[in-house]
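The passage that follows is intended for readers who have already worked through the single-chain material. We present the inputs for a multi-component assembly, then the predicted structure in tokenized form, and finally a short commentary. You are encouraged to pause after the input and sketch how you expect the pieces to fit together before reading on.
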Amino acid sequence: MKIAVCAKVVPEQARRIDPETKRLDRSGEQTLNPFDANAVEEALRLKGDGADAEVVLVSLGPERSIDALRKALAMGADRVVLVSDDTASGSDLVASSYALAKALEREQAELVLFGQQANDSDGAVMWAAVADRLRRPLISQVAELTVSDGSVRGKRQTEFGYDVIEAPLPAVVAVSDAINEPRYPSLKGIMGAKKKPQETVSLADLGVEAEHAGEAGSRTEVYAIGEPPPRGETQRIDDDGSAPEKIVDFLLERKAL
Amino acid sequence: MTILVFLEHHEGELQKDSLSVLGKALQLGGDVDALIAGSGVEGLAVQAGKYGAKKVYVADDPALEKPLPQPRVDVLAKLIPEQGIDTVLFAATVLTADVAAGLAARLDAGLNWDLVDLADQDGKLVGKRPALGDTVYVDVGWTGEPRLALFRTGAFDPVESPAEPEVQKIETQLEDFSTQAKMIEQAHEESEGPSIEDADVIVAGGRGLGGPENFALVEDLAKALGGAVAATRAVVDAGWYPYSTQVGQTGKTVTPRLYIAVGISGAIQHKVGMQGSNVIVAINKDPNAPIFEYADLGVVGDLHEIVPKLTELVRQRAA
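Having made your guess, compare it with the prediction:
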């Protein structure tokens, strides 16, 4: 079975929005979106020892994203396809899902996996857009996943409790971060990651026309960045052993005890 | 402007957050219509009228019985161009997020999510979206129509605005791939134990507890304070604690006098369920945990050291 994992590379920390471009500042250290590590882990679990199974990572981003994506290779994924193109920057959901679907069509994986959300944009919708473009059944928020006899079954949490959805392969599945505990790459895995196939493709390689790329292909825009509404003061204590007393004092002061 | 509000329903009731979005749409002016999709749902149209929908489209079809997103994308993708709808609003849920994003792809339509407000600024619709862990608020918009928007849970309250709705039944034509996913078991509200929604004091535990056995720390503190125990989605999904205690976007929304978060990082999913609490205390060993951004008192330290001592102090005071 071939499993494609859609992964995003995100800023490691100190996130800020560039006031000029109104886009996320991606200049600092980059890392694999932590939620996508759950999708990688699930793909590796499903692959098991299957010699004819393959886990391929598909990502959109600048060329240097490859360094952060290598973590997934170190965990055990087989190869990476990075869609990288200057004209893709500023892509919103519509444009990104278009390019991602094109890259996935090329791979023809039986199962396409997504993580629960992107921790930079807080977006948690990409899978549904991609599933529609690929015209494949979708199961999202999956906390328990089984694959058997050409179909996939997911147990997931909604506002009303748990439901179970089943779909034939090929299918698109988004997993929750509760589904597993992603493994740490082993030293051997890290050493071997560099030798695994890492392909960078342009939008033209995928047949994405200019009108579908970047800002031209996007349907949303950002007008302004502002301050959040004011909230009360936050008091902060670093525990030196006296925290319990200080908490009690605080609760008494706030008449919360 | 012709606005359509997607109304979600569960066990014969329209959902409160959907009706809140309907109220928001009425403030924007123009025609406000609603869509109800399901099986045997025609009666719900009257409910929608109580909250101001003038025209209610009803897609009533056995194929829409289960709350699955893809058939609903088909219904909307047909309705929107036929009726010249330019704006489609959703209250964000597990179901509607998938419907809205599938629709965005199908219609090449812009989708802005996690909005806490939407306003007409000189003829242009501008949404407000908290970003970067709610540390900034971004004004967002659309470059074309239709415009799609998902609103964050609890962003508004429903407003009663009775109208006699015109009900228009619409036909359902489904794509072949849209009916491939089948719901084998449908979620039902579980009601075990006392409801945390009424609790005056809540002590909530998250993944930072390290394991289900450590929920005893949270339970002891809650007992000493005379409060209830709550949990995050992560630990509920991991099976550490029952779903009925879950606080957050896909759980309960609570507003106690005191909320103590133990080993909870405070992701948005959790925040929207408890940010209305009067006093919030957070105990977490990670100084960068987002919960410290909105706690009234943030304690950086080892919960295994702090919580038992805190429980003891609270007990002594009570005695």
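Commentary: The radius of gyration of chain A is 21 Å. The longest strand of chain A covers residues 138-148. How closely did your sketch match?
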